[in-house]
Structure to design on (758 residues):
């Protein structure tokens, strides 16, 4: 079979995936249209998400999707990266504007790719959601939610700059964990693109290949081939072939890893580094923050949350915010609620968009984000005998009782910790009624 | 203004004046000296023919409004051509119309349409929902935005919208200087359109309590003297007309609800805020004197708490 010159399609289709992701994120509003569930299913194509789910129990019902990605990768290589990844779509667009082949010097970094992947996978296994953050769906939506909140998308800028000035697919071939995972599997792929038999070794394909996979001197393209077809288009002697060739040439052994002492040493270092980093990335330094409704208990939550920012975008009251850098590496970018600024309206939209299950679907009656506590020494009803009861007026759960002297009390069996009372309280800094986050989040 | 418009306006003004003359015998509630009289520039007439309260009975929201206004002499009596009309319903909680914790959406939309048909230039339907950061929930769940916009009106929620308020002063015990919604201050016709429902803090929310949605800082009311504040607020700016939705409403768990619902099957029209609230409190099953702000408002002379002695027109 010939690899057709895929001219427009190779830009249009990936760009469409980017556009679709942006459009679906835009629709993450109240009320949430049901079709936005597409983004959830789309995200599930990422095998790395499945890896994170395995840590927390059995196979989810959607496991066939990432398996499909893996299967396709085993057949033809990184077609997901080249055609279906929205972040890849963005980098592909940039590559259409600025055609810069990867510089030779980059090859020096190649031996560090596997240790980096091992590092991230180990982190994931040890229980830090950080590893998932770097996978394309999560990183892109996190950056998009930042844009929506008029915050600067630093990571996206860095990735775009790397695409423009280092190599078009530097992110995809050296840093993206999903890309590295698929690239690794791609070494065993069944079908490979191959220069025509009459190849004259002109090297033009290597100049247009965005991922540095074209290798006319070898029997077939390398594992990073994205199947974009640029090589086939530029080739002066004919179209590239797609051939069934499970074994690459001698210089490109299927596994691609020579288990030299150096390689083993690097992998071992990555494991150790992940162990060390996990203690830093998993142990929160700040006090227990108030999490969105349905959030798993803190350790479990941190192991799952990819910091994808979707709960932040969808929240109708914008009460969910990303934790600041100052809260420490374990908590940075995870969603939390500052009730005094905005209260949770219990629309449960965050539960519907969470791709990792860090915010689980939980009936309000079983939800326990926190419990309201009244400071009797400052509450107007208790300290000054006034009829205030603003907390009672605001409470959507009818969890505030009042006695015959109009003094409020919290019915802890009804309180879910949404923060409506704390938000409404006329006493300032702090309010006279404050939600204390609870370590157990389910009744 | 061209000649034709001028003639129309002049004719209308003449008719209004003569109507006013004919109805010179109507009872006017005692007005507190501190209360600013309603600015009635855009109103054809605010006088009610021979009754103090008009009560429409039934369950169909459209027919209730139509019958009520027919008894009052038509909506045209209130809406002058080109008038800016402001309606303040209660859509301050995110409840569906079935949950009966917000002013009947169909009635608000119908009133909007009636005002526009009578020649109003613009009808603004405004509130400041309790869940201050998320008024969209109230707009969506009550369906009020869709309904009013379909009727040709505009819906605004002023939570956090600093520009929508203007500093005002009042010589009250609790209220001295505060920020109030500009729309109402500038309106030619201001209609208060509350729902009769339970309120845990204030016992009941009625017409006067509904006006709290027009102030920037509601926390101040709760931290000073809630009932006194509500009464003074009612005196500060009297609605030209109050329409109380007492078709059905929650009898517990108010104001947020949901709660048990009782059907009253009534809509009450009038210009005496105290009389309307007193009548509605009685309908709910409470003595008007037991609701702090009604008692204080009556003591201030804003209106008549003894609704039994008033002339009621039932239609």
């Amino acid at each position: 079979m010939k690899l057709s010159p895929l001219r427009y399609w190779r830009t249009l289709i990936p760009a469409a995936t980017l556009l679709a992701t942006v459009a679906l994120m835009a629709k993450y509003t109240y009320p949430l249209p049901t079709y936005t569930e597409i983004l959830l299913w789309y995200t599930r194509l990422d095998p790395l998400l499945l890896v994170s789910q395995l840590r927390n129990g059995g196979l989810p019902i959607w496991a066939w999707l990432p398996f499909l990605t893996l299967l396709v990768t085993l057949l033809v290589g990184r077609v997901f990266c080249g055609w279906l990844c929205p972040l890849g779509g963005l980098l592909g667009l940039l590559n259409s504007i600025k055609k810069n082949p990867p510089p030779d010097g980059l090859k020096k970094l190649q031996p560090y790719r596997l240790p980096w992947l091992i590092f991230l996978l180990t982190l994931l296994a040890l229980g830090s959601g950080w590893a998932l953050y770097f996978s394309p769906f999560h990183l892109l939506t996190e950056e998009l939610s930042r844009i929506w909140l008029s915050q600067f998308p630093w990571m996206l800028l860095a990735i775009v700059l790397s695409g423009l000035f280092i190599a078009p697919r530097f992110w995809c071939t050296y840093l993206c964990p999903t890309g590295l995972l698929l690239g690794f599997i791609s070494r065993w792929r069944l079908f490979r693109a191959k220069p025509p038999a009459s190849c004259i070794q002109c090297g033009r394909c290597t100049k247009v290949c965005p991922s540095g996979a074209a290798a006319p001197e070898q029997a077939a393209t390398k594992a990073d081939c994205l199947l974009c077809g640029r090589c086939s288009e530029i080739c002066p002697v004919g179209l590239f072939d797609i051939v069934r060739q499970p074994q690459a040439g001698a210089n490109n052994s299927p596994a691609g890893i020579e288990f030299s002492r150096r390689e083993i040493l690097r992998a071992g270092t990555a494991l150790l580094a992940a162990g060390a980093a996990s203690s830093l990335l998993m142990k929160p330094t700040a006090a227990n923050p108030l999490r969105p409704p349905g959030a798993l208990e803190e350790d479990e939550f941190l192991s799952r949350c990819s910091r994808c920012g979707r709960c932040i975008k969808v929240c109708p009251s914008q009460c969910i915010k990303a934790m600041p850098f100052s809260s420490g590496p374990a908590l940075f970018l995870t969603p939390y609620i500052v009730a005094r600024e905005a209260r949770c309206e219990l629309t449960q939209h965050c539960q519907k968009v969470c791709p990792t299950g860090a915010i689980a679907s939980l009936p309000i009656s079983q939800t326990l984000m926190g419990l309201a506590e009244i400071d009797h020494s400052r509450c107007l009803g208790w300290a000054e005998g006034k009829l205030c009861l603003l907390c009672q007026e605001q409470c959507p759960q009818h969890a505030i009782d009042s006695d015959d002297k109009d003094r409020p009390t919290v019915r802890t069996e009804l309180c879910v910790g949404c923060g409506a009372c704390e938000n409404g309280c006329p006493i300032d800094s702090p309010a006279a009624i404050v939600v204390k986050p609870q370590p157990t989040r389910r009744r | 203004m061209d000649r034709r418009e001028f003639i129309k306006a002049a004719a209308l003004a003449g008719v209004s004046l003569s109507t006013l003359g004919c109805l010179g015998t109507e009872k006017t509630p005692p007005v507190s000296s501190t209360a600013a009289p309603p600015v009635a520039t855009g109103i054809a007439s605010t006088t009610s023919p021979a009754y103090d309260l008009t009560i429409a009975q039934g369950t169909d929201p459209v027919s209730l409004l139509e019958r009520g206004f027919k008894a009052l002499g038509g909506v045209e009596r209130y809406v002058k051509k080109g008038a800016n009309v402001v309606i303040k319903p209660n859509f301050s909680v995110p409840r569906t119309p079935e949950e009966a914790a917000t002013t009947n959406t169909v009635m608000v939309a119908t009133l909007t349409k009636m005002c526009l048909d009578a020649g109003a230039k613009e009808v603004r339907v405004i509130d400041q929902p309790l869940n201050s950061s998320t008024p969209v929930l109230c707009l969506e769940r009550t369906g009020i935005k869709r309904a009013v916009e379909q009727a040709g009106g505009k819906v605004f929620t002023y939570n956090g919208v600093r520009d929508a308020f203007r500093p005002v002063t009042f010589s009250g015990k609790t209220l001295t200087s505060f920020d109030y919604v500009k729309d109402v201050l500038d309106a030619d016709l201001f209609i208060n359109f509350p729902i009769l429902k339970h309120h845990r803090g204030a016992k009941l929310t009625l017409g006067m309590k509904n006006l709290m949605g027009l102030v920037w800082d509601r926390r101040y009311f709760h931290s000073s003297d809630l009932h006194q504040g509500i009464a003074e607020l009612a005196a500060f700016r009297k609605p030209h007309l109050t329409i109380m939705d007492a078709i059905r409403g929650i009898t517990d768990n108010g104001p947020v609800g949901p709660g048990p619902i009782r059907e009253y099957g009534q809509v009450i029209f009038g210009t005496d805020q105290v009389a309307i609230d007193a009548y509605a409190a009685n309908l709910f099953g409470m003595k008007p004197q037991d609701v702090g702000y009604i008692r204080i408002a009556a003591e201030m002379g804003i209106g008549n708490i003894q609704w039994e002695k008033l002339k009621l027109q039932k239609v």
About this structure: The domain at 38-314 of chain B is CATH 3.40.50.11440 (Rossmann fold). Residues 168 and 178 of chain B are 6 Å apart (CA to CA). Chain B is about 35% helix and 20% strand. Chain B touches chain A through 25 residues (CB under 8 Å).
